[in-house]
Amino acid sequence: MPEEITGLDKSFAPMEAKLVDALPTDDGWQFEPKWDGFRCLAFRDGKDIDLISKSGKALSRYFPEVVALLLELKTLRFVIDGELIISTGDVVRFDALQARLHPAESRIRKLSAETPAEFMIFDALQLGDEILAGKPLRERRSALEKFMQKSQVAGLELSPATTDQGRAAAWLSESGGALDGVVAKRLEEPYQSGKRAMLKVKQHRTADCVIGGFRYDQTGKAVGSLLLGLFDDADRLNHVGFAASIKAEDRPALTKKILSVAGGEGFTGKAPGEPSRWSTDKSADWRPLRPELVVEVLYDQVTADRFRHGTRILRWRPDKAPRQCRMDQLQHELRPAELFGILHS
Length: 345
What we know:
Elements: E1 16-19, E2 29-35, E3 38-45, E4 48-53, H1 64-71, E5 77-88, E6 91-92, H2 94-98, H3 105-114, E7 117-127, E8 130-131, H4 137-151, E9 156-158, H5 165-174, E10 179-186, E11 196-202, E12 205-216, E13 223-231, E14 237-243, H6 251-259, H7 281-284, E15 286-288, E16 294-299, E17 302-303, E18 306-307, E19 312-316, H8 336-343
Parallel strand pairs: 1-11, 7-9
Antiparallel strand pairs: 2-10, 3-4, 3-5, 5-6, 5-7, 7-8, 10-11, 12-13, 12-15, 12-16, 13-14, 16-19, 17-18
């Protein structure tokens, strides 16, 4: 049984997901979109609203417009689980969320007016005085749907859900980068605070990239990471990310291969940023390469024309000309109208 919520205890941790390769195909699952946003629990006790992130960080200060929306609800006590998202220029944008984590209140107020966040709600742990966390998901979802139907506050949205695995698979394949993936939850299980009690299949796509540079590992003798680039319309090679998951036994041969194309301009457009504070002197500086090697990589999300996370090398592409590796390979987020058309089809 889950930990019981007592008096809107803000230490109550959200249920987490275990990453898997494929959606389950047996019966008894509910599937939901995994939004590309900030996961948080929203606690209300009278006039007090607290938005708490998955890591326990207080978010209310950074999203005052969402606090205001939650205060419009007639229910004075609740704990609901959801995801903060922001759309800018009619595109769902994760970087707009990151821009909110700013120390100046005036800046936060400005951004909250210019790019207001929405709260996609997918679970209810307490509504009024009724504790729902210990009830099966089937009952929690029914209570949440009734709650949202009578609430009707723009900016507070009920996240879609389905028990149809085929429909969930379509969400995964057709939603572009607007979703982070799809989660699966057991319909008959209670909310399990802090436990990886649901499954998550992430969005993954591939791109053919030019290796425009590299960084040495901490020894300064072997390749530590490959710096990836794509050509834009002006034929400039822009840095778009990195691949660092290199097996130790593969490093000697990889290093020899990379050093065979050392030199040249490397990136002629956007270049790699400053190294992290954990880098050593030898690993910090990146080394340019002649743009001759092409590699196919697996990536999840794109933010500001680059891979948000590290990529995984799938294979070398000696059959591909470097200048065929263009920026238009990057799959950006779907526009909200298109996305909701897919989710509600």
